[in-house]
Amino acid sequence: MATASLLQPPTPLNPHHTLTLSQRAAGFFKSQQSSFTLPYPLSLLSNTESQEKWATYESLFLACLRTSDNEAAYLCLEELTDRFGRQNERVMALQGLYKEAMAGSQGELEEVLTGYDEILKEDPTISSIRKRRAALLRSMGKVSESVQELVRLLDVSPTDAETWAELADMYVQQGLYEQAVYCLEEVLVVMPNAWNMHARLGEVFYLASQRQEGGDHLKGLSESMRRFCRSIELCDDYLRGYYGLKLTTGSLLVTLEGAAKPQKSSSDPVAGDLAPPSIESVRKLNQAATAKLGEIIRRVGSAEKGWDGYNEAEIKAARELLEKGAQKIER
């Protein structure tokens, strides 16, 4: 089956793509109809058996849940249950997700939580249920309990990048940036080429720098800039990376140019600290980020082929960032 995140909200597509996908559910069900179906495990002998088929069912299930097409979501879930069995770990997690979506009150959510607890009493090693339990606790506002659940997960599976990323997000939510940085660095140990995680780490360093002063503020901004540079090095057209680079270099220029004298923040080989970048280097990076953001906005706006996968909200934010920078130059 597909390995979509169990911690994040269903279907990471933008609303338009999610709606389009859910609208294809009826046609997909029709294409899968046959004169008879075999029960599991005889269904393994079916000629229509394929990993892509069941991945499609799961994707449709998540999309239909997100668009409130509960009937179609239920049909997808039934097909997955018939194929893999009710005791399949991922099926149990998807069933729990469906119950969460159908819950209309806090009391009903508590019942779903109790159901997760009962499953874990029988087998505490089912990580998919633990992930759903952590996500449900977070949605119910029980942040500390959710953090505890994620920590227990990591005690058992310390290389679970998804759980480290979710824990980092929860620490950011609480303003615990140092702990969030640690978690994201653990993600990068497992997935060193994950450009989105490098960018996320850059965001956390930037947020942390807003609380800092003097040399620490400069150090935080510099590290943030380096992380965004790494993200776009790994993915040349990554909008979020260029947005972050534009933002951090802009702040760095203000900090470096506004200083009465050079900041005392030299390199420290023992601590692993690097010297702050030069004004010239920061200015060039700012110009490069500006040019690339402009290119992305222009190509997306003209509906060029191959440039249609960007999030509308992120494009709007990038446009506003460029306009804000242009206004400062005019003044």
UniProtKB/TrEMBL annotation:
One Pfam family per UniProt: TPR_EMC2
Localization: Endoplasmic reticulum membrane
Gene3D superfamilies named in the record: Tetratricopeptide repeat domain
Ranges: TPR repeats: 161-194
Keywords, sorted A to Z: Endoplasmic reticulum, Membrane, Repeat, TPR repeat
Superkingdom in the source lineage: Eukaryota
Name this polypeptide is given: ER membrane protein complex subunit 2
PROSITE patterns: TPR (PS50005)
Topology versus the membrane: Peripheral membrane protein
Function: Part of the endoplasmic reticulum membrane protein complex (EMC) that enables the energy-independent insertion into endoplasmic reticulum membranes of newly synthesized membrane proteins.
One Gene Ontology cellular component: EMC complex
